[in-house]
Amino acid sequence: MKRSWQVATVALLAVFAFFAFESLRLSLVDALGPGPGFFPFWLSMIGGVLAVILLAQLQRGTAGVDAGMLAFDRAGTRNVLLVLAGLIAATAVLELAGFRIAMLLAIAYILIVLGARNWVGIALFAVVGSFGVFHVFSSLLKVPLPVGVFGF
Amino acid sequence: MKTKRHSLACGLAAALVATLALGAFPASAQQYPAKPVQLMVAFPAGGGTDVAARIVASIAEKQLGQPIVVVNKAGAGGQVGWTEMSRQRPDGYYVGFINLPALNTVILDPERKAVFTADAFVPVINQVLDPGIIWVKADSPYKTLKDLLEAAKRTPNKISAATTGILSDDHLAILMAEEAFPGASFRVVHLDGAPAQMTAILGGHVDVAFDNVGSVFKRVKTGELRVLAVMDTQRSPFLPDVPITPELGFPTVISNSTRGIAALKGTPEPVIRRLQEVFKKAMEDPEHVKKMEEAGLALKIMVGEEYAKYYRELHAKAAKYTEWARSRPHQ
Amino acid sequence: MEGLAFLWSGFAAALTPANLLFALAGCVLGTLIGVLPGLGPAAGTAILIPLTFALDATGAIIMLAAIYYGAMYGGTITSVLINVPGEAASVVTCLDGYQMARQGRAGTALGIAAIGSFIGGVVATVALAVVAPPLARFALSFGPPEFFSLMVLGLSLVTGLAGESLVAALLMTVLGLLLALIGIDPVRGAPRFTFGVPELYDGLGFVPVVMGLFGVAEILLTVEAPFGRLVATKIEGLWPSRAEWRRSSGAIGRGTAVGLALGLIPGVGAVIPTFMAYILEKRLSKHPEKFGTGVIEGVASPETANNAYANASMIPLLVLGVPSSPTIAILMGAFIINGLTPGPFLFKERPDLVWTVIASFFVGNAILLILNLPLVGLWAKLLKVPYQYLCAGTLLFCVVGAYSLKGTVFDVGVMLASGVIGYWLRKLGFPLAPAVLALILGPLMEKSLRTSLEISGGDFGIFLARPISATLLVGAALIIVVAMLKIAPLKALKTAEPK
User: Neighbours of C (≥3 Cβ pairs closer than 8 A)?
Assistant: First the structure.
């Protein structure tokens, strides 16, 4: 637990360093008071100090760390990675393949990966979730959802 | 057998290629419009531009024969929407409203890093011209524009003047006023739109507001505010009792905000002409005229070359003031 | 009190079958819009404006207003059921509402939300009817410096969201503030941290980030350990216990006050009142550490504040003609299209219309309650579907929602990235709420700070020179000092952590 918090805090430190660096490229102060870089820079500094404090606390064991749920099991992690992969893929092709196709495949994929085996249910849900939702949004609500390059 | 299958395959391949090729032609090769047209508004739904756009679109689409879908792509004072538009195909199926001088200053201000230039857009037809005004609270010590400018000269950089956004037409108008009355200088405060100005002035936090007729004219009746001047070449039909800047001795202080429809560079001429025809008719429609009047938006229909000329001249004028705004020690 | 006489005739008009129908339609549509992802009251109201072209002015406004506060309630439903805030203001409800749902108490959560919303809305409307003008005048004295100090006060309340580690909460706050600064600098117009990506010019987008941090992250956690996170199999009774009623009544009272007060100040937005009410409740509670595990006050408070805010924000609109938020601006647009100008003149020119509309707010709030209470049990049943379908459905929901905000896939990407980050933060035990509060306060703070400095010509003293602003800042300082004092002695007592 302590190790993972340390890693996270160092990651935060890196983020703050990045923001500080980028802020210096914008002006900190100009003729009229604070420039665009003023706030981000000082915020990053404060963040850096806080991160260092937290690291010190973690070292000394006085951090008052909340109990997280940092346990991993293979089946669980497999699920997470698979679902995430599916989502990323669906998002990447959303405008290419169009909402209907992308979501049809994504929903079916997720259901199957998570263990659903009722094929009728899966098919129905996937179709309603993709084509059905598309229809509702575009015809009834006039909110356009992506249409793929094939015009579909 | 093999040759037969082979030629069949060739034939299919040829047909496929032909279909794809046809699909790749701009849709204007067929009769325009063959599918719905998207009309982009670079500001949030419900705002002045959006309301006017929806009104004219609903009338124009009956003429056009295809639905005109108003699409809001708001953000960064219009920059997000115009950036999105500049990346579309110039086939006439994606047109948008341009607000001047907002568009001009986005292009001219180096800090904004706009990805499009002034000639990326082809002005098609203008709808609204909203003249700039200068107004104060009803119990303000400044009774005329002269009072205000003299005070701004006596106490330079002390009198606060609100705009509706940085490098907006209001901002440029403040610079024009200072130019016309040498020695006068205001403390410029950039607020977020007309409602913010209203609370700031009525609450006594800022001394004077530079804005446009449309935002404010209906409140004049209530007696809460006093309009010092309209920055136009003729009196506003909505505020007939308010003097215009040329009458007050400041003929160079002319400022306004226009909203019109533009297409992308490279859009075929026949398509542009069709759009002009359809929208002109819609804008002249009595229902449209009535609704614009109720909203306090002055119609100024400029078509084609007239609009393009206005665009070019405004761009040059905006360039001068944008330069000046950026170089001032206090904005 | 000539207002009361007008109010009476207003009721008569509001209760005509036609206007009743409009209010009902508005409530139903509004709730649906609130439930539907991404749309939110703003977009939904805008879509429905053309519909109201066909109606007369009174009917149109009644319906649009009903849609607005109906949508506030609709957002609650998804927050409680699937931890996806239907729209920004429902974020805080996720904290305890979803936990209650996991314990089989979704019905209770939704029920108390409905009741709290009703009370908050009615009280706010009474304020509108009776004391609107002086309230509005007071609100006018809030200029940019006061606004900034108010935001600072709001931010200082972050200390109330800290779990065991104050430093972790502060870290998250700073992170949230920095992320909030991504986009075009509001005062100078220079893009910051955008890497030339135009979609970032307006910032990350609060809604996609929050949908990711809460909704998507929750799905990832569920997928990882389905049986650990699932709903208790039996859906327990719908009514809160007597003790819960007692606690809720206090929460509702305080939530109303917070929502009402903040609704008067233009520009605050609906999210901040919910945070403030929640934190206030947590601070005053005898068992603050229970917040976040599913306490009923944690739902009653923000939900009441939410609706009180929605109704109270009509006050600046009707009395001053100033819209408090983009959504109200759309409502104002509807007024204008129908040829009316909100503002003091409206009261004098068309008292019949104004008072009918005000009366219909009462009616609308009542309709909302009557509509939603019976449905609560139904919504709760939705949770019984097999978890694979719930997950897939929620993800679909989120994707559609994120996309339909601005019509770009970019927002979906932001949501997914936030989901992954949220997943990690949850697993580690870093608090999310401070980051979310900072994300929404950040831009407002910076803008009002720089505007204040423009007004004062660069003089920082302006914040202390003005009485209201100074008071707020002192309050903020006190809150921070008290929080630090509370934690410091505890830390001294703590021994080294066992491995």
Answer: A, B
CB of C51 within 8 Å of a chain B CB? The answer is no
Query: Is the minimum CB–CB distance between B112 and chain C shorter than 8 Å?
Result: yes
What mean pLDDT, rounded, does chain C reach?
82
Q: pTM score, two decimals?
A: 0.81
Q: Identify the helix (H) or strand (E) that includes residue C269.
A: none
Burial status of residue B213 (CB atoms within 10 A of its CB: 0-12, 13-18, 19 or more): buried
- Give me the interface pTM, i.e. the ipTM: 0.88
Phi-psi region at B162: left, alpha or beta (left = phi > 0; alpha = psi -120 to 50):
beta
Q: Among candidates B214, B209, B213, which has minimal Cα distance to B244?
A: B213
Cβ contacts (< 8 Å) between B71 and chain A: which residues? Answer: 144
pLDDT tens digits, B138-179: 999 999 999 999 999 999 889 999 998 888 899 999 999 999
Would an 8 Å CB–CB cutoff place B18 in contact with chain A? no
Give C108→chain A minimum CA distance, Å. 27
The chains found to touch B (3+ Cβ pairs under 8 angstroms) are A, C
**Contact: B79, C43; criterion CB under 8 Å:** no
Q: Which of residues 15-54 of A touch C (CB under 8 A)?
A: 15-16, 19, 22-23, 26, 32-37, 39-40, 43-44, 46-47, 50-51, 53-54
Report residue B320 as tokens: 């001068």
pLDDT digits (tens, 9 = 90+) for C290-329: 888 888 999 999 999 998 998 888 888 888 777 777 777 7
